[in-house]
Structures are given as structure tokens and as C-alpha cells.
Design goal:
Layout lengths: L1 E3 L28 H7 L22 H12 L8 E3 L2 H20 L10 H12 L1 H20 L4 H13 L6 E8 L2 E11 L15 H20 L5 H17 L4 H4 L8 E3 H7 L5 H8 L6 E4 L2 H10 L3 H16 L5 H15 L7 H25 L2 H24 L5 H13 L1 E5 L17 H17 L21 E3 L4 E5 L14 H18 L20 H19 L2 E3 L2 E2 L6 H23 L22 H12 L2 E3 L1 H10 L5 H10 L2 H6 L18
Parallel strand pairs: 4-6, 7-9
Antiparallel strand pairs: 1-8, 2-12, 3-4, 5-6, 8-9, 10-11
Helix pairs in contact: 2-22, 3-4, 3-15, 4-15, 5-13, 6-11, 6-13, 7-8, 7-14, 8-12, 8-13, 14-23, 16-17, 16-19, 16-21, 19-21, 19-22, 21-22, 21-24
Bound molecules: zinc ion.
Zinc ion binds next to strand 1, helix 19 and helix 21.
Length: 699
């Protein structure tokens, strides 16, 4: 179970939280060069006064106050679903940096920091060659299709599903390694629901107008992809695929249920899995995917596998479905007709007007395939021992703030406080980049077929992941590459991870005033830490094990407080008539509310330290207001400005329906209206929108 700071709007249906396999997703992009050149510059350190909307009171709408002019003046690039002041702009800068690295490698000037630079260069160069995509990648796919067409019985089907999954496609379900939720020292197998092409199970049977339109578009898209492969009777085949996926969707757990780790824990032995879905030849499947010895498995959604058992015996339907999954997964590596057709579908979910330029798609694919090779070059350009040391110091401050707060809670008994303290002290922190880099020497990268390269990278990653089953837990592993602009908390590992990508402006800089570093990166740290104690995280103890470690009375008190948050966010409108789902976003919102409180408390503790650096540039030991804003106000503004985001309506809708993260506006106004110290900092009248008389507090 891994909690992110932000989940980028992904349009492929990857329900597995664990393996990082290069999956084909049409990332949006294309660069209207003139507007973007300016944005490729990092912003100046500190809060941005020029984007404040001073016509709006911070007590009425803080998001608008902090971001107003930015929101009005910043168009969404035509190739993006949304555009945010921090995540999107850092991503854009990183893409330019990474492009410089991969192009140099591709020219035969391999970066000295990366022993696999030649592979990185070859991967990127092959990706950039559109002519080869039209021919060589398609030839690779044709080979895959031949073996799919030979599926005629249970054994050949299971083998084919295993082979496709090994190469990064995702038919029917997902399989990966994970720690046993109830015994975190053991790594077992995990099978989970999957195999859908729409972003969520609910899209298959909701009957509102948008859902009906989207289904029609999807069936049309499936038909077009099959037609491009020369499949006879493609429209009729597409309908069959839709029927098959609808059966899988109906048997799938919904997103809110899946957030409850007690509901997704069903450990079975190998025989138990075979009994649950006896018509699927599991042994052939495990051999083909590369985990022949797996004995213990978690089956997240048992009903799904019962239904799957009824689906897999119709071999003609399964063949058509596998054909589609294979081509859909490969679409980004193929010729223009395939790429354009997939974009025609995904744009309905993202609203993007243009596809991303090829180089950006290729940088992303290279990062997914060889992220810890490319990352080595990236951190030599961006990294800094100073940033890393400062970030670690900030984490310590945030943890101390959580500890001090814990002592004040009246709804927790002493036993729960003690156990929570144990958990807090056991949190492991990873900052910037791994100590031990991944060894890619066994990954072969060719120069002809991008699809073959992508499948080789996926097979490498699948093998690496499945090899962990039955072995001791590897605590050194990172599940994000260094350039990633994100962060995560893992319940089973009880660890927080902050890649170098997020340790940049506007989140953080060694040169930035302390309050803005706290409002940016400090808040992110508080958010991740609070995930360890949100409605999911709190079910795992300090050793990463899922069990009841609080008394029933403390559980009840927690749930009451969490329900307050769920109700609050249920009331927020994301777009048109679509509200946020308070239970889907609950963990993230608890993280935001707790994170803001911890950030502020850590900032205050810092203020009291000798050599006060509040409100001043770090090396300037004079406390200083900025344009009349004191240190706390600056920290709140810095926090608000991290989330300035413009959404296309399609993207806001998709996010509200499928993403556990609230939209930007509510990631700001939600937490500040639950923070009495915010009202104090801005002298808000009790009862004003950002200072409600009743508010929610969990931590
Ligand atoms: Zn989060």
C-alpha cells in the first residue's frame, strides 16, 4: 500500500499499486515553443507576490487569494490535461534536462555518471525514429499476435496471458510481489483485479450522459484499433470485448472499498487460488510470467477471480480481447495511425487538444524503462549534498511536531499514543536518490524496435519484481525514479520517500526563505508522514503489519473524526455537477490537514532555534517580513501557491471520479479551513469561509 502526494492523471487502467512497469500511456505534450521557453525557468525563491489576487480576502477564498492572477494568466498548453504551477512546471524543466542527457548519450557521448548511458541513448534514439516505429515495432506486435491467434485451450491461454503480462501488457488481471500485509517480513505474490480499458469499473454501467458517450467512444476506439490490425468484423469484435470487460468490471471492487486494507486482504496458498478460479491454468501462467515457485498469494478481490473463471473458457472472445490489449498497450510505440487513434480516445478523458511532441513521450518512456540509469545523470545535474542535508533536517522537525501533537490528543488513550510513538520513531526516510542504484546489465536494448525494447524493459522489471517473492524484504528499493516530481509513504515498509524531483522550486531551494521551504516541501513531508496515520495507514503498526493495534474506543474516536473530513470534502464541487468523493479522497485529505498543521508547528520550532532565520534568506540571519507578510503568512501562501492549477473540464471530471487526490482548489481551501492557526495568521473573522465555526480535526 503506497500513498502518493499526487497521482498524475493517468488514462490507462493500472489498478496495481506496486510494479513500475513501462506501461503504455499517452502522456499529453507538444510545445508551443514561445510560451514554454519562459516557463522552463525556475521561479524565483520565495512566495510570488505578482500572482496574488488582492481583490479577494484570504479569509473568503485563500486559493483564489494565493493563486488568482496565476490562474487568470496561465493557459493550459494544448497538449496537457491540466497545468499546475509546481508539478507541471518542474516536470517541464526536468523534461528539458533529461532531453539533454538522453540526446548526448544517443550521440555516442555517454554520460560518465551512468554506466548504462549507452543503453539509455539507444533506447531514446530508437524511440525517436518514427520510421522504425511504423515498421519494426509493428513487426514485433505481429509476432505477438501470431501467438495470441494460436490460443486454443486453457493451457495456451494461460501461457499467453503470462507472456503478455511479462512484456508489460495488462490483460485480465495484475500480478506482482508485495509484502504480506499481516506479516511485513514476508514477500508473497499478489493477484489483483484489472484488465479494463476505461479508467474505472463504474464507467461500464453508470447511466449519466457523459458515461454513455464515453462508452460509445470506447467501443468505437476498440473497433478502430482492431481495424488497424486488419481484424475482420472489427466493430462486432469490439462489442464482444466491451461485453467481456463489462463482466470483469461488474465483478471488480469499487475504489472506495479498495481503500480499506481489511477488505483487500485474502491470503491464499497456491491451491486455494487454483480452487478459486479452477478453469484458469495457473501453473502454466506462473511459469510463463516467470514465477513458477510462488506458493503464497494475496487475492485482493476474490469475486473478480470467480468471474474471471467464467470468462476464460470462451477462447474466441479471449483471443480478440488479448489482441486488443496487446495493441492498446503497444500503441505509443507504433506508427502514426495507432498513436493518433489512441489519442482520439484518451483526449475524452484529459481534454488535451494535441498530443505531446515525440521527444517528450520518448523521455518519459526512457525514464520508465531505465529510470535508475537516467536518474544517475539527472542527480549529478540537480542534486546537492546541501539540499539533502537540509531536507533531512526538515523531516526531523516535522516528526518532532507530530510527536508533540500526539501528546496533546484527547481522543487517544495512553496505549495508543505509545504505540503511535513507536510507529513514528520507526519511520524510515529516503531522500533524493537511492544509495544503491539498479543494475541494468541484464537488460538488452536494441536499435530497431521500440516495442521490443519496451517489452524487454518490462520483462526485466517483471523478473526483478517477481524475484522478490519468498526473499527477505529489500529496504533499499525505490518505487519512484529520482526525477519524479512526487513523494510517497508505504504502510508495509513504514517509510517516506522524497525523490530529487520534488526538492526543487517552488517546493524547495537552499536559497529560499525558510517559510516558503516549509510551506512547500515541509508541507509535503507533513502530508506523507500523516499518511502513516490516515484512515488506511493507521491500520498498520510500526512494523508495517495490518492488525487492530488501537482499542475499540480509540478506533471509534478516529472514525468519527475521519467521517467529519469525508463529509466536508463531499460538499466540494470539482467541476460542473461533479463533487469530490469524500471517502475516495479521505486519506489524502487527512494527510493535507495534518501536514499543514505539522508544517506550521515545525516552522515555529525552527523560529525558536538559535540563529533565527525566519522570514529571511537562509544565510541572512535577520527575520524579515516580505511585503508585509510575516513568516507564518508566507508559509501559508507558499503552500497555496504549490497547488495553483488550471484544469480542463474533462480532466477535473476524471480526477474527481477516479483519483484519491482532491483538485488543487480543495487541497488548499480544505486544509486551511480546518486550521485555526490559519484564521489567526490572517485575522479571519470566525464564521468566514476559511474560518468556519465548526471544523474537522483528525491529527
Ligand atoms: Zn498523499
Amino acid at each position: 500500500m503506497r500513498k502518493l502526494l499526487l497521482l498524475a492523471l493517468a488514462v490507462s487502467c493500472k489498478s496495481a499499486p506496486e510494479p513500475k512497469v513501462p506501461a503504455a500511456e499517452t502522456a499529453p505534450t507538444a510545445v508551443p515553443a514561445a510560451t514554454r521557453m519562459a516557463e522552463a525557468q525556475a521561479p524565483a525563491p520565495g512566495i510570488d507576490l505578482a500572482i496574488l489576487d488582492r481583490a479577494v480576502s484570504p479569509c473568503d477564498d485563500f486559493y483564489r487569494f494565493a493563486c488568482g492572477k496565476w490562474l487568470d494568466q496561465t493557459p493550459i498548453p494544448p497538449d496537457r490535461a491540466l497545468w499546475g504551477r509546481s508539478f507541471s512546471e518542474i516536470l517541464e524543466r526536468n523534461e528539458v534536462l533529461l532531453k539533454g542527457i538522453v540526446e548526448k548519450n544517443a550521440r555516442g557521448e555517454p554520460d560518465a555518471a551512468d554506466p548504462f548511458a549507452q543503453k539509455v541513448g539507444d533506447f531514446y534514439a530508437t524511440c525517436m525514429d518514427e520510421t522504425k516505429a511504423e515498421t519494426a515495432s509493428l513487426a514485433t506486435l505481429r509476432e505477438n499476435l501470431k501467438s495470441i491467434d494460436a490460443v486454443a485451450d486453457a493451457k495456451s491461454l494461460a501461457r499467453e496471458v503470462g507472456a503478455l503480462q511479462r512484456g508489460g501488457a495488462r490483460p485480465f488481471f495484475n500480478f506482482y510481489s508485495r509484502q504480506d500485509a499481516k506479516d511485513a517480513t514476508q514477500v508473497i505474490g499478489a493477484v489483483d483485479q484489472g484488465g479494463l480499458g476505461l479508467p474505472d469499473r463504474d464507467y461500464y454501467f453508470k447511466d449519466d450522459k457523459k458515461a454513455v458517450e464515453l462508452r460509445a467512444l470506447y467501443v468505437d476506439h476498440v473497433g478502430k484499433m482492431l481495424e488497424l490490425l486488419g481484424t475482420p468484423d472489427a466493430p462486432a469484435q469490439a462489442k464482444k470485448i466491451m461485453e467481456l470487460e463489462t463482466r470483469l468490471a461488474k465483478a471488480s471492487m469499487d475504489r472506495v472499498s479498495r481503500r480499506d486494507p481489511d477488505k483487500t486482504y485474502h491470503r491464499l496458498d497456491r491451491k486455494g487460488l487454483m480452487a478459486a478460479a479452477p478453469k484458469f491454468e495457473w501453473s502454466d501462467y506462473f511459469a510463463a510470467v516467470g514465477a513458477p515457485e510462488v506458493q503464497a498469494l494475496n487475492v485482493s478481490a476474490p469475486d473478480f477471480f470467480k468471474e474471471l473463471d467464467g470468462v476464460v473458457t470462451d477462447y474466441p472472445a479471449a483471443r480478440t480481447y488479448l489482441r486488443f490489449r496487446a495493441v492498446e498497450g503497444a500503441a505509443d510505440t507504433l506508427g502514426k495511425a495507432f498513436v493518433d487513434e489512441r489519442f482520439r480516445f484518451t483526449r475524452a478523458l484529459t481534454g488535451a487538444k494535441q498530443i505531446l511532441p515525440r521527444w517528450k513521450r520518448c523521455v518519459t518512456m526512457t525514464d520508465r524503462a531505465l529510470g535508475e540509469a537516467l536518474g544517475r545523470s539527472f542527480v549529478t545535474l540537480t542534486g546537492g549534498a546541501e539540499s539533502k542535508a537540509m531536507a533531512k533536517e526538515m523531516i526531523t522537525g516535522i516528526e518532532k511536531a507530530f510527536e508533540a501533537n500526539l501528546a496533546t490528543l484527547d481522543w487517544m488513550d495512553e496505549a495508543a499514543k505509545k504505540a503511535s510513538l513507536y510507529k513514528l520513531h520507526k519511520i524510515f526516510n529516503k531522500v533524493a536518490y537511492p544509495e544503491q542504484w539498479r543494475d541494468y546489465s541484464k537488460l538488452a536494448v536494441g536499435k530497431e524496435s521500440l516495442l521490443a525494447n519496451l517489452q524487454a524493459a518490462a520483462a526485466f522489471e517483471t523478473a526483478r519484481d517477481l524475484a522478490k517473492i519468498g526473499k527477505p524484504v529489500d529496504r533499499g528499493e525505490w518505487r519512484m525514479t529520482p526525477p519524479t516530481v512526487n513523494a510517497y509513504y508505504s504502510s508495509s515498509l513504514n517509510e517516506m520517500v522524497f525523490p530529487a524531483g520534488i526538492m526543487q522550486l517552488p517546493f524547495f531551494s537552499p536559497e529560499a526563505p525558510v517559510p516558503s521551504n516549509y510551506g512547500g516541501l515541509g508541507m509535503v513531508m507533513g502530508h506523507e508522514l500523516t499518511h502513516g496515520f490516515d484512515d488506511q495507514g493507521r491500520k498498520f503498526d510500526g512494523d508495517g503489519n495490518l492488525h487492530e493495534w488501537w482499542s475499540p474506543a480509540v478506533n471509534k474516536a478516529f472514525i468519527e473524526r475521519a467521517e467529519c473530513v469525508a463529509k466536508q470534502y463531499d460538499g466540494y464541487l470539482a467541476v460542473d455537477d461533479v463533487h469530490l468523493n469524500g471517502h475516495l479522497t479521505l486519506g489524502e485529505n487527512i494527510g493535507d490537514i495534518g501536514g499543514l498543521k505539522m508544517m506550521l508547528s515545525a516552522l515555529r520550532a525552527r523560529e525558536q532555534q538559535a540563529g533565527d532565520t525566519m522570514g529571511a534568506a537562509r544565510r541572512d540571519h535577520v527575520p524579515r517580513d516580505v511585503a508585509g507578510f510575516n513568516a507564518e503568512q508566507q508559509a501559508f501562501i507558499a503552500f497555496g501557491q504549490v497547488w495553483c492549477t488550471n484544469y480542463r473540464p474533462e480532466a477535473a471530471r476524471t480526477q474527481a471520479l477516479t483519483n484519491p487526490h482532491s483538485t488543487g482548489q480543495w487541497r488548499v481551501n480544505g486544509p486551511v479551513s480546518d486550521t485555526p492557526d490559519f484564521a489567526k495568521a490572517f485575522s479571519c473573522k470566525a464564521g468566514s469561509p476559511m474560518a468556519p465555526v465548526n471544523h474537522c480535526t483528525v491529527w
